[in-house]
Amino acid sequence: MSQDATVVTDLLTRRFGERLALDSLTLSVAAGEVFGLLGHNGAGKTTAVRLLNGLLTPTSGTASVLGLSPVDHGPDVRSRTGVLTETPALDDRLTGRENLRFYARLFGLSRHEAASRIDDLLDMFSLSDRGDEHVSTYSRGMRQRIALSRAMLHHPEILFLDEPTSGLDPVASREVQDMILMLREQGKTIFLCTHNLEEAERVCDRVAVLEQGQVIALGSPRELAAQVSPPQIEIEVEPSHREAAASLIRESWPNVLLGSDKEATISLGGLARADIPNILRALAIGEINIYQVVSQQLSLEDVYFALHKRMVDL
User: Fold this and answer.
1) Is 133 exposed, middle or buried (0-12, 13-18, 19+ CB in 10 A)?
2) Which residues of the chain form CATH 3.40.50.300?
3) φ, ψ at 133 (rounded to 5°)
4) What are phi and psi of 146, to 5 degrees?
5) How far apart are CA 9 and CA 236, in angstroms?
6) CATH, domain range 5-220
7) Residue 27: phi, psi to the nearest 5?
8) CATH level 3 topology of 230-295
9) Residue pair 145/111 in contact by the 8 Å Cβ criterion
10) What pLDDT, in 10s, does the model give residues 89-141?
11) Among 65, 69, 87, 183, which residue's beta carbon has the most beta carbons within 10 A?
């Protein structure tokens, strides 16, 4: 287990009566990592966030956040984490700045510190020119930016973002994703719960896929794609060289799946990742003219549905 892990769970389990909401969750999140917890609504993502912030008590298992037990040290944990819920409650009667000022007092910031921090956050999230307008006039994207600013007021060491782009239009969603990437560049640790697979693939270093409260896959999007389907590539060569190229590959890599219905393209499947540069090097030595190499690696969405189908078929 990494010594710089900021979140660690071991067989973390939560039941609500007879319903098993989270089943033996075991994972660790490194400092400075964007970690995604993926799953459909009801998969257990929000339950995990509540457990990790000491808002729920586990039925069994343990969790550690920043070296603290959320059960025994809930207030201390929450003083060092920031949480953005799927439907953040903002007071429409107040301005964006007043909303932030109210929560700054709850976090125990001095008046001077709060004013400086609010100015910085409004500037960071491009809201300086709208900060003194009522939240009721804000778009959903702007409201989400204010809510994210609120979660960051007290300089949290970890941000828990629960469906941060839910209900947002594509432009607003991209703005929030860009903010997550900006925060990652600043070294912030982010625990992202989402069912938006394109979003997860864009911003996450690693992901865990939840199905019925259980983790069924864990790793980087690239690693999970390789688990579901080995890398596949298409190589476009000089048409007159195609047969020579195919013969060379068959001779040295007999286990590679070879095929294509295109005159100048060879499709390769069943590859180990390390095979790809070796094959290209061999073709170059064989004086095969290579015009294009295209990776056909699965997207995270492809991976997710392949894993889901495996679970359904069990």
Assistant:
1) middle
2) 5-220
3) -100, 155
4) -65, -40
5) 47
6) 3.40.50.300
7) -165, 170
8) Alpha-Beta Plaits (3.30.70)
9) no
10) 899 999 999 999 999 999 999 999 999 999 999 998 889 999 999 999 998 88
11) 65
